[in-house]
Amino acid sequence: MLRRIRVMEEDWDYLVILDGCRYDLFSEVYGAFLEGDLEKVLSVGSNTVEWRDNSFPGRYEDVIYVSANPYINSRVAVKGFSAQDHFHGVVDVWDWGWSTEHGTVHPRTVNEAVHATMKNNPEKRLIIHYLQPHCPYIGHQPADSGYPLQEPGQRTVLDGTIAEDEPGHIRIKIVDLMTVAGKSPLGRLLGLGIEGTLWAMRELLGLPPVSPMDAVRRTRGVGGLREAYTRNLELVLSHVAELMKDLHGEVVITADHGELLGEGGRFSHGFGRDDPLLLEVPWFEVRS
Q: What whole-number distance in Å separates Cα of residue 2 and Cα of residue 67?
């Protein structure tokens, strides 16, 4: 039986979070970048918010959170979670380090933030949260994908929801539309999951993609989506490997949750799901 990981109950000096990283694909590619001991474990959430709320119930005065993810930030409470109340400090890389070229935070920017944080706080433990391999996929430009790049303050940036600037008669609550889509005869006929049915319906109606993942699926198919995800994973692992040269202590690499990449017509991730591809994540202890 796989053990369910609560990260603050484990031993580490540096905890690296790869956002949306599946165990199976991590296990296929990590050997080209890192050496260590890999274990398959269960996350405490199937999306970032659920994982965050279950992972950090208390205050951790010995920890600084270097965050490329806007769901963990020191500026405002996000869905009831005020990160500044839980950690000694929060480095808001998602804010000042956001790349308008890529529509996300590049992993090299996270590394720069880590180096500065270690220099100023040598006695603290660090949680280092990269946004990759989560979409958008670096290397796929907007013209290539058909989805506009987002800013960190937009609700679409990590939710994969309909863009705010769509006409009012189209902008329906995403959860309601997904519920209808998942129960539709079309979804059952095509063997698609909720997101897959919704995306197929929007494409059929000539509506724009709802997320970078949907956009890549349209232009490159499920195989191309899986390749784009894998390239994002390899990119972030190359930068993690570079960072490892300067980390001295116990380093663990894991993920907040996994990702669905078209298996059975299922895509993305959401709250409260029990799919193994969303809950099975790596727990990788780096050999120093």
A: 28
